[in-house]
Design a protein that fits this description.
This protein is mainly β. The chain has helices at about 1-20, 265; strands spanning about 45-65, 65-70, 85-100, 105-120, 125-135, 140-145, 150-160, 165-170, 170-175, 190-200, 200-215, 220, 225-240, 240-250, 255, 280-295, 300-330. It has an eleven-stranded antiparallel beta barrel. The model has no long low-confidence stretch (mean pLDDT about 95).
Amino acid sequence: MKRIFLGMPLLVYLILYCLTVSAAGVRPDAHAPINVMADHNHHAGEVMLSYRFMAMRMAGNRDGTHRQPIDSVLRSGTGDYMIAPTAMDMEMHMLGVMYAPSDAVTFTAMLPWIKNSMDHVTMTDGTFSTSASYLGDISVAAILPFGGDHLFSIGLSVPTGDQSLMDMTPMGRSILPYPMQVGSGTCDLIAGLGTSALRDHDSLGAQVRGIFRLGDNDDGYAMGNQVSVTAWYARNPIPNLSASIRGVYEYRGNYDGANPVYAMALANKVVPTVDPARRAGQRLDLAFGINVAHESGHRLALEYQWPVWQKLDGPQLETDGVLTVGWQLAM
């Protein structure tokens, strides 16, 4: 995550620049915090371009709600495995476009590029790291306003990502475990329902959103369904800037089926990351963010969220924090 902090001076400069220019009636909190998708619609003929960078850090193992020391994961201690993950970084660059052919519908498309890296320790005290990067699954959706301030979104995630990425391990060049892959391999239904309200100097909103697998991929498995529920409150201390606080509950299920390429590693309990029954979890996060609006239609946004509670079907790496930085331009 070092590259994030190298880019922070530029982000701070851009935010300060935006604050020097009137937003000309544009509400910075007219959009939700940057990590909330499908939160707003557009009027007929409007287009919005966006870029998001998200970095997630995971470190330390957890089973249920309890932290697990490495000795309780590895066979050299009281655990079952030959190898244990110790940390993982996920970085995602996402390009987005929104277009409204009419006031009744706004179409969206998202194109992500994902890079994953993971550190490991072996039962003989050896260490190694793996990494992989590739285009993720592209998603398209329609956002439909109804009943005033309510929005319904429905879309499809297309399996453009790869679920067979490889890197060097102590066993030679191998297909990496489930968490290191950047694609699902399945067409997935994306659906959400949200609402928001703008008041004189503040705003609030809520959303429920899910990703539902529509079948198995070519490797004979499907990732677990995912559901998130979030609510936020934002206030404008000055006209160009809003500050927000947000609560997030996230659930993901275990995988259905298994990739046969992991069968030997799974049977010999080489590493828990090849076990499709150790992928589920729940998490409750607290997030703080800022949105800055510029009269030209540019927006800059930042949000940081960290878990206040986690329950995992472990051992699994627990999440330490998620940073999202974004730019949007409405035309």
